[in-house]
């Protein structure tokens, strides 16, 4: 029952991580306008994401424009686009693998050992996905902070951390925790199966003892003859 609860918790965290990965990939709020010194323009907000940039004026609806070319992006955003797309695919594969290894599903049969290996695979993929999400989010955040405190960079070009970065860090943590839960469930399956096959039952031991006692050896029969 405890392992089944861990499976449900891991699947829920994995599903939340998968949705969060896709959301972070699509969101344009990776870099937002920095309102500092003379750049206090409260009626204009600028968002920069992996796929588009959006500008919102006061009393005017938001206007978004998709980037014309991948080369127009900075190197950190170029790498982030590729890594986040890979993370989205990995999160989807890990979630499907986890569903196949769940105790309530019959797609992989009823063998607990096989399902334990499937859940271990799903857990490892979830952990790898969390690391893949963590790398671009931290990389972009580091470049934003570096440019923010760089006196050479123009004030109008400085940006702040957007909401997508905070959601990305949370998503990476959720994915890693979900993967760790699946790995723990797999270890529990391995221990229970090894314990089940290594220790014979008490009834089996008594039956074998009585069978040996009832059947005399050939040597003892020859003595009576």
TrEMBL record:
Keyword presence, rRNA-binding: no
Record-level GO cellular component terms: apicolateral plasma membrane; basolateral plasma membrane; bicellular tight junction
Pfam families: PMP22_Claudin
Keyword Membrane: yes
Subcellular location(s) per record: Cell junction, Tight junction; Cell membrane
The family this protein is said to belong to: Belongs to the claudin family.
Keywords: Cell junction, Cell membrane, Membrane, Tight junction, Transmembrane, Transmembrane helix
TM stretches of this protein: 79-100, 120-145, 165-188
Organism: Bison bison bison
Source domain of life: Eukaryota
Gene3D superfamilies according to UniProt: 1.20.140.150
Principal subcellular localisation of the protein: other
GO molecular function: structural molecule activity
Topology within the bilayer: Multi-pass membrane protein
Role noted for this protein: Claudins function as major constituents of the tight junction complexes that regulate the permeability of epithelia.
Protein name, entry field: Claudin
């Amino acid at each position: 029952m405890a392992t089944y609860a861990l499976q449900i918790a891991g699947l829920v965290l994995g599903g939340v991580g998968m949705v969060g990965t896709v959301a972070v990939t699509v969101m344009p709020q990776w870099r937002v306008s920095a309102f500092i010194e003379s750049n206090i323009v409260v009626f204009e907000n600028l968002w920069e994401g992996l796929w588009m940039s959006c500008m919102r004026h006061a009393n005017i609806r938001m206007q978004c424009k998709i980037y014309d070319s991948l080369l127009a992006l900075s190197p950190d955003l170029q790498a982030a686009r590729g890594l986040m797309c890979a993370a989205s695919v990995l999160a989807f594969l890990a979630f499907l693998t986890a569903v196949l290894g769940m105790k309530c599903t019959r797609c992989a049969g009823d063998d607990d050992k096989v399902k334990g290996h499937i859940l271990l695979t799903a857990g490892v993929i979830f952990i790898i996905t969390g690391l893949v999400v963590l790398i671009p989010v931290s990389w972009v955040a580091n470049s934003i902070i570096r440019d923010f405190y760089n006196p050479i960079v123009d004030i109008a070009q400085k940006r702040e951390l957007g909401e997508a970065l905070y959601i990305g860090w949370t998503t990476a943590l959720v994915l890693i925790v979900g993967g760790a839960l699946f790995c723990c469930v797999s270890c529990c399956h391995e221990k229970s199966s090894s314990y089940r096959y290594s220790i014979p039952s008490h009834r089996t031991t008594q039956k074998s003892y009585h069978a040996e006692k009832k059947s005399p050896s050939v040597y003892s029969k020859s003595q009576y003859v």
